[in-house]
Amino acid sequence: MGKFSRDKGYRVENNLRKQILTHEKMECIRVPLSGGASIKGDLIFNKKGGEKWQAEVKARADGFKNIYKWLTDVEILILKADNKKALAVLDLDDLLTLIEEQK
User: Fold this and answer.
1) Half-sphere exposure of 90 (CA within 13 A, CB side)
2) Is this structure's pTM higher than 0.70?
3) What is the pLDDT of residue 34?
4) 94: buried, middle or exposed (CB in 10 Å: 19+, 13-18, 0-12)?
5) Backbone angles phi, psi at 19, to 5 degrees
6) I want to staple 89 with a disulfide (CB 3.0 to 4.6 A). Which of 2, 42, 53, 77 is the partner?
7) Distance (Å, rounded) from C-alpha 20 to C-alpha 39?
């Protein structure tokens, strides 16, 4: 991986970590050497005292154009490929609010 890609990845991951931490009930760490050690993913976040969530971060200049378009008028986008599990895509702040509201 080139220096530009590595630096971009760090910036995006760090900005997302900061966004998660704006939610008072949330904790978040950036995984050092993402994916290179025994810990998988780029970020680990959780409601304070709650279950930990591992997140893999992908950033593309224009690579997710259709996903954003499909999410325009709905809260959750469900993606399903043949013979694969369904995936739910939603705004990060909405996900964090759902996690915070868990008992």
Assistant:
1) 11
2) yes
3) 63
4) exposed
5) -60, -45
6) 77
7) 19
Residue count (the chain): 103
Residues 6+ apart with CB under 8 A from 21: 27, 28
Tokens of 13: 């991951």
Name the residue ranges covered by the structural domains of the chain.
Answer: 3-100
The DSSP output letter for 1 is -
Cα 25 to its chain centre, rounded Å, is 17
Q: Which residues of 83-92 are buried (b: 16+ CB within 10 A; e: fewer)?
A: eeeeeeeeee
Pair of tokens at residue 22: 């704006």
Other Cβ atoms less than 10 A from the Cβ of 11: the count is: 11
The string of pLDDT tens digits covering residues 8-51 is 889 999 999 999 999 999 999 999 876 666 788 999 999 999 99
